[in-house]
TrEMBL record:
Name the record gives this protein: Unannotated protein
Gene Ontology biological process terms from the UniProt entry: phosphorelay signal transduction system
Record-linked SUPFAM superfamilies: CheY-like, EAL domain-like
A GO MF label: cyclic-guanylate-specific phosphodiesterase activity
């Protein structure tokens, strides 16, 4: 690393600031802190690589700071801490994302300092891998970003909630360098979007998925493989033709799904709708990814010919077996999907209780760590065997 990364700690309690500063220093950061409103205002004008922000700051609040930070430090990674409960923190996290900040962790007080330290260390490794998280620049050689030798796909099964059978898998991109380690897809995709190279990433992903599907029996025998596309790809008039050329070599179009998630605002709805409709006319399936986290543009997109709706894991994780009424958002998501004849999938199902709840609420399919984490092709059969054994005990 060329320079020690800098962290700014903002908390109205000085004692907490001191603690977090100490943790940051032990995680390899140079740390400064601010507690008083005027100091905070001054401090956020400075240069740093990470902010740890308390949401309740007395006279001013963390939400206000987020909007200021977002205006001057677009893409700045933040860790949010608060004495409030996790639900409020999740909401604050979403607001931070709307202000174009990058939330790398949310911690409800009291939290373990070890966990905070781990989050900071992981982040300093990301910086170490040569990427400047504060801006759109990629310090690593731009060629490395989409070097086919560093990319591969992991596949996560999606299963029927009724029969437990695998309905398909989702292809998730992985970037791995023998010296630099792994870069998470969220960061990779953000960098690729900033560099306006999403169609290059998509071409590579489609090519790898088609190749894997021809090469591995476990994939060839599955009904469906999903591929994630960026909304930026929905400006690309050539996409339907390229998708047909690359993917149909391995399987007919009705056995491929494109998942669309709103990682960037959809600026122009009409061309996006046109591309989606052309993909659907070509026979591909279309999925609304991360439903429940996007913005109102989704509503306009719902007139597009989607065949599937994936309820975001943030909503699934809030399902509580003890609640009198299940989460109304999940219920309405399922209703929306079914009334538009879509298959509804619950994402991020981690526990047997969550599986039973989404099944009983009417979700057709489930995906998540309970069933299997994303795995490489040769591990798919074993992962599904293990899942079948679990499923027997679930019903
Ligand atoms: P996504 O499309 O919503 O994919 C699901 C993400 O949730 C994956 O993260 C998966 O590993 C994670 N996940 C699955 N089950 C669970 C669970 O039970 N608990 C928890 N906590 N997480 C679970 P991953 O692989 O890190 O990907 C993150 C996001 O990056 C994806 O979210 C997708 O939006 C994007 N992405 C991944 N691959 C590609 C790609 O090839 N192209 C594009 N454009 N985006 C991609
Ligand atoms: Mg997806
Ligand atoms: Mg998703």
């Amino acid at each position: 690393m060329s320079e020690t990364p800098k962290v700014l700690v903002i908390d109205d309690e000085e004692a907490i600031c001191e603690l977090i500063v100490a943790v940051a220093e032990s995680a390899g950061f140079e740390a400064t802190s601010a507690s008083l409103p005027r100091d905070i205002e001054d401090a956020i004008g400075g240069r740093f690589d990470l902010v740890v922000l308390d949401l309740s700051l007395g006279e001013i609040d963390g939400i206000e700071i987020m909007s200021k930070l977002g205006a001057t430090h677009r893409g700045m990674p933040v860790i949010l801490v608060s004495g409030a409960d996790q639900t409020l923190l999740d909401t604050a996290g979403r607001i931070a994302e709307m202000h174009k900040l990058r939330v790398i962790g949310t911690f409800a007080k009291p939290f373990s300092l070890d966990v905070l330290k781990t989050a900071m260390m992981e982040w300093s490794q990301v910086i170490d891998q040569g990427m400047d998280p504060t801006g759109p620049k990629v310090i690593i050689n731009a060629d490395l970003l989409l070097d086919p030798d560093l990319l591969h796909l992991a596949y996560q099964p999606k299963v029927s909630t009724q029969t437990g059978e695998a309905l398909g898998v989702e292809a998730l991109v992985r970037w791995r360098h023998k010296d630099h380690g792994d870069v998470s897809p969220a960061i990779l995709v953000a960098l690729v979007e900033q560099e306006a190279r999403t169609s290059e990433l998509l071409d590579l992903v489609m090519m790898m998925a088609a190749r894997d599907r021809k090469r591995y029996r476990a994939l060839a025998s599955l009904a469906d493989i999903s591929i994630n596309i960026s909304v930026l790809d929905l400006n690309d008039e050539e996409l339907p033709r390229r998708a047909q050329r690359v993917l149909l070599e391995a399987a007919p179009s009705e056995r491929w799904t494109f998942e669309v998630t709103e990682t960037a605002p959809i600026t122009d709805v009409a061309p996006a709708l046109a591309i989606l409709t052309r993909l659907r006319i070509a026979g591909f399936r279309l999925s609304v990814d991360d439903f429940g986290t996007g913005t109102s543009n989704y509503e306009r997109l719902l007139v597009a010919p989607f065949t599937e709706l994936k309820i975001d894991r943030a909503m699934v994780s809030r399902l509580d077996i003890a609640a009198v009424e299940p989460d109304p958002m999940v219920r309405s998501g399922i209703d929306v999907g079914h009334s538009l004849n879509m298959q509804v999938v619950a994402e991020g199902v981690e526990t047997a209780d969550q599986f039973r709840m989404v099944r009983d609420l009417g979700c057709d399919a489930a995906q998540g760590y309970l069933i299997s984490p994303p795995v490489v092709p040769v591990q798919i059969d074993a992962a599904l065997d293990e899942w079948r054994r679990k499923f027997e005990y679930l019903s």
